[in-house]
């Protein structure tokens, strides 16, 4: 059941009062950053929560929520979280969040798009070497007492062609590592990209597939990329080539890949992400790729290094702090981007999230003007149907609550709050 807040809490919660919930074993660095800034009311759980339990927690007054990849934030969960002001995805992607529903409720969603780049690139390089050397089947044989000392079907990667589908942050770093190791690198991307080193662009996806000895996917999940590697694309690959997917599970037709591996068209694969993944470590992993020769299967750990998780913890918590303290939305994936200075000492900062409709700024200014309040700074940014306004004003304490209540009642308002601000001393 939803708890009632005091009059003061409705106006603005202090940092030490702000309830924050972190799920799925988010790194210590996140908690350390929050505590260092005065946010001490942090609950951290090692696991994800089911939808109903999560709704109950959010109805209990949670203001900021941190998740990784297992938690799914759907429209009904946002509907059950009236006091939630921000979500931090302690991951690269945000596919686990209904971003439209978050925007509708005025909740910015932050992530860490670059923090695990190196980890994924390193894993991919390691897999390329293991596939060409057939290390995985030889290792499994040795575990069973079978000695397979032979150079047959074992090759160097130097001089081989790596095809990278998606030449973004991870793709470019992978290309740098591969070139250092003597590989020729080609790429395909939907947009024109600056090329590094001796990397060249393929004419199109089919050209890349036909020329590459190993194809590595580094694309986001979008309607355009879903199923981008299907039966036709797999059969277009070089006979004896390898396929690596450390990006998104929906990119590859797993059944078609299994057939190509079984009939020998492909010599191997390394897959870290799957269309359907277990919801916990206790659930059995089911896949047609299990048991196939020279196939490396990993449980969605491409970015799961301690170094990456530490960086992600620091980056996402910093974005949450900046939004809570100052109202800055830089780095939000579903919100107008605004980088803000700290409010002046004598001013109070009001944040107003609204539908992007005519007359909104006039109504806001009228609310302040009717009380003879001096507005010292004003910031406005819109994106699609969403408007984001930050107002600094010299408001006396005795009228702040009534003014905030009026802002919340204005036609078109989604959410409004007063920022407590970074000037509040951190608890000793």
TrEMBL record:
InterPro entries: ACT-like_dom_sf (IPR045865), AHAS_small-like_ACT (IPR054480), D-iso_2-hydroxyacid_DH_PdxB (IPR050418), D-isomer_2_OHA_DH_cat_dom (IPR006139), D-isomer_DH_CS (IPR029753), D-isomer_DH_CS1 (IPR029752), D-isomer_DH_NAD-bd (IPR006140), NAD(P)-bd_dom_sf (IPR036291). It catalyses: (R)-2-hydroxyglutarate + NAD(+) = 2-oxoglutarate + NADH + H(+). One of its GO terms (molecular function) is phosphoglycerate dehydrogenase activity. This is 2-oxoglutarate reductase. Keywords: NAD, Oxidoreductase. Residues 20-334 form the D-isomer specific 2-hydroxyacid dehydrogenase catalytic domain. Pfam families: 2-Hacid_dh, 2-Hacid_dh_C, ACT_AHAS_ss. Catalyzes the reversible oxidation of 3-phospho-D-glycerate to 3-phosphonooxypyruvate, the first step of the phosphorylated L-serine biosynthesis pathway. Also catalyzes the reversible oxidation of 2-hydroxyglutarate to 2-oxoglutarate. Belongs to the D-isomer specific 2-hydroxyacid dehydrogenase family. One of its GO terms (biological process) is L-serine biosynthetic process. Transmembrane segments: none annotated. It comes from Dichotomicrobium thermohalophilum.
